[in-house]
Amino acid sequence: MSAASPRRVLIVDDHPVVRRGFRQLVEEQADLTVAEEAATPDEALQALGDERLDLALVDVALEGGAQGLDVVRQIRKTCPEAAVLTVSMHDERLYAHRALMAGAHGYVTKRVADEEMLRAMRQVLGGELYLSDSARERLAEDVPEARAPAADGEAATPVDQFTDRELEVFLLVGRGLAPRHIAERLHLSVKTVESHRRNVRQKLGLESAAEVMRYAVAWRVERGGAS
Question: What is the C-alpha to C-alpha distance for residues 101 and 163, in angstroms, rounded to an integer?
Answer without folding.
Answer: 24
